[in-house]
Amino acid sequence: MGYELQWSILWEMPYREWILQGLYLTYQISLTSWIFALLIGILIGMLAECPLRPLQYLSTGYVELFRNIPLLVQLFFAYFVIPLLLPLHLRRQLYDFGWEMGSAIFTLSLYTSAKLAEHVRAGLNTVGKGIRQGALSTGLTWWQMEVCVVVPLVLRIIVPSITSEFLTIFKSSSLAMAVGVIETTYVTQRIGFNTFRWIEANSIGTVVYLMTAWAVAILMGLIERRVRVPGLLQREGGR
Amino acid sequence: MGDIGQEPIIEFKNLGLWYGQYHALASIDERIYPKDCVVICGPSGSGKSSLLRCVNGLERIQDGDVIVRGISVRNCRDLPRLRYHVGLVFQRFELYPHMTCLNNVTLALRKVLKLSRADAERRAREVLGRFGVLDQADKYPAQLSGGQQQRVAICRSLVLEPDVMMFDEPTSALDPEMIDDVLQVLLQLVQDGMTMLIVTHEMQFARDVATRIIFMEKGRVIQHGSKEEFFSSTRNPRTQAFLDRVFKEKRAEEKQRHP
Amino acid sequence: MTLEQFFGNLWLLALALLRYNVTLTVLAVLLAFPIASLLALGRLSPYRLIAYPTAAYINVLRSSPLLMVLFWTYYTFPMLIGGGNVNVFTAALIGLTAFEAAYFAEFIRAGLQSIGKDQQQVALATGLKPWQVSLYITWPQAVRRMMPSLLTQTIIAFQDSTLASVIGLREVVQTTTIVNAREVRPIWLYSMLAILYLCLCFSLSRLVRRIERRTADRLGG
Fold first, then answer.
1. Residue A31 phi, psi (nearest 5)
2. Helices (H) and strands (E) in chain B, counts
3. CA count, 13 A, side-chain hemisphere, A83
4. pLDDT at B1
5. Which terminus in chain C has less CB density within 10 A, N or C?
6. Chain C partners of A178 at a C-beta cutoff of 8 Å?
7. DSSP track, A4-30
8. If you measure CA to CA, which chain A residue comes closest to C193?
9. If DSSP codes are grouped into helix, strand and coil, which group holds residue A214?
10. Nearest-CA neighbor of C172 among C70, C69, C32, C24?
11. Residue-wise pLDDT tens digits, B156-179
12. DSSP class of B159
């Protein structure tokens, strides 16, 4: 085989610099998108349980749209098409701003928000009619009931299921390289091309993602333990 | 005996309710007066729970109307305002599992009556204390027994000082040992002069505490009248059949517990 | 875009889709299932020497982006094995198979574990040998239970196959980019691509849901 592993090359400049930059961008894309996705996703998820029919359809349509189109296609659509739909001065601003990153965050936010909306909807279903009627009977308006009782409860219930979405967002951020963002995956390939040390380069990339996955799992596990609702689900009354 | 001289607190006027094709309630015409303690009984599926839910607008009325404190529920534009004057206690308590008992009780005080947190907690603790669950105030519902949970649920509605309290089979989800606890609470409320509308199978309790009894079957009122009339020897054969069955079940239950 | 061009491009896209994406997905799934079954069994094995490595494989593959896996199979491994050029399709196939096998393995494991021990013990008590219990009792039921998850994952794999465009496979996304370079109609072309996938995946997921409902009815919910 004649291939000697030379791990030290990863530590040399400029490769060390590249890896850190790639890491930074991966995290920037993932975390920014995650926050947007949470806000939008919760909203869309709540719309699905709204008493107004058209809003329900909107919610379902939104989710189906982003679920059925591959992420890469969505990314290309955002990167190539959206600027063309804007007037010229806005388009220029978009490119100046850095639409590579922008489109990546935009796409990933919307895509993940659709997945999260599904989890929120499932969570709302779990809460069920009983508690809502109990809250309404004390004179709370629909909005007060949703915000003060239902949403806090639902958020606690869905922590385990949205953990996987959080993990996925880091992996999906790798697609940003297809539109030119120099994140971790792209960096590992650049290093590989430059040094021909493919195993080392790819390994460091894999290690980054593994460590991230591990950290996310631990973090979400801690959160879940903190916000766990005592005795929820399948509790017999009076026992 | 209810104050028949005064205006009725709740008036059912030819009330009708459908669930799709299923006719859940038909031609209900009743009046509930202040200080009345009305027990509604009947076989499963007779529409008793639906009746209560029509009063506070949780069910949409299709026929007739329910007038609560002079306000038509069917045409009511501000149901939340109506609802806190009418307390409803559920079979499965429906406490908010992610909040402490104290917060369960204070939530409506703060959001609906706009009390400050300090005022709300003071009132809540007072009511919880009255029904013996004050030391559970900082616990979560899942940490309480069924009887305690139901008492907290009663406090949650009671603390809003409603004009009438409705109970939808308050003891059906409880272990036998705890049923008495909750019935004691109901008794205390009656003695304090609260107008009560209770759906229950506890006929012994009805005999002790009720002023009037309404018997329903298949969505209609079969017999209504004072307690004395109800338990006297002359009555509707369907009522008779129901009472026979209930007392037979009760005797079997007693035999199981004390052989 | 004239009608002729529209249908011409649509034809190109559909052709690329069928030739590469669909083939890739189908082959990957067919290969992944037996591999995943072995992985699942390995994961459940009481022998640490088998259980730990399989668990490691599953975890690593599930934590890694598919893009990285494709880079491993296209650029890295060929370098080790003689340093020749690997066929893009083969690399994509191996990468996708390895990737999906890890996900399938988890679904299969969940399916197998959902068959209660009681069932298996009853079968053993009637004299069946362990391998017979597996074949006639455990696996048929487990497969029916895991079918919806596996089918859904297949649809996801179909969407994931588009990533092969990044390593240069002339599948549907790459074809769109190539046509766009020639005709410069990104709005039309990328919309066609998006709608194509939207219709296909939506119909497929509806189909899966109907299958799910039918098996649920038969199994009693």
1. -70, -40
2. 9, 10
3. 19
4. 47
5. C
6. 165-166
7. ---GGGGGSTTHHHHHHHHHHHHHHHH
8. A73
9. helix
10. C24
11. 999 999 999 999 999 989 998 899
12. T
pLDDT, tens only, A146-185: 888 998 999 898 998 899 999 999 999 999 999 999 999 9
Cβ C191 vs Cβ A81: under 8 Å: yes
Instruction: Specify whether the CB–CB gap between C40 and C109 falls below 8 A.
Output: yes
Q: Which chains border A (3 or more CB–CB pairs < 8 Å)?
A: B, C
Query: Nearest-CA neighbor of B239 among B203, B211, B197, B198?
Result: B203
Q: What is the mean pLDDT of each run of 10 residues along chain A (239 residues)?
A: 66 83 94 96 88 89 94 95 87 84 95 95 86 91 88 90 93 94 92 85 92 94 86 42
Task: Find chain B residues with C-beta within 8 A of A129's C-beta.
Answer: none
Assess whether chains C and B touch, using the rule of 3 or more C-beta pairs within 8 angstroms: no
Asked if the Cβ–Cβ distance from A3 to C79 is below 8 Å, we say yes
Residue of C158 and B226 predicted with greater confidence = C158
Contacts of A144 in chain B (CB under 8 A): 80, 111-112
pLDDT value of residue A2: 45
pLDDT (0 to 100) of residue A31: 96
- Taking contacts as CB-CB distances below 8 angstroms, the residues of chain A near C176 are 76
Q: Which residue of C has its CA nearest to A178?
A: C166
Query: Do the Cβ atoms of B10 and B61 come closer than 8 Å?
Result: no
Contact residues of A toward C, CB < 8 A: 1, 3, 64-65, 67-74, 76-77, 80-81, 84-85, 167, 171-175, 177-178, 185, 188-189, 192, 196, 198-199, 202, 205-206, 209-210, 212-214
Nearest-by-Cβ selection for C162 from A64, A72, A185: A72
Task: Kindly report each contact of residues C154-159 with a partner whose C-beta sits within 8 Å and lies 24 or more positions away, as own/partner.
Answer: C154/C25, C154/C29, C155/C201, C155/C204, C155/C205, C155/C208, C157/C25, C157/C28, C157/C29, C157/C96, C157/C100, C158/C21, C158/C22, C158/C25, C158/C200, C158/C201, C158/C204, C159/A68, C159/A69, C159/A70, C159/A71, C159/C197, C159/C201
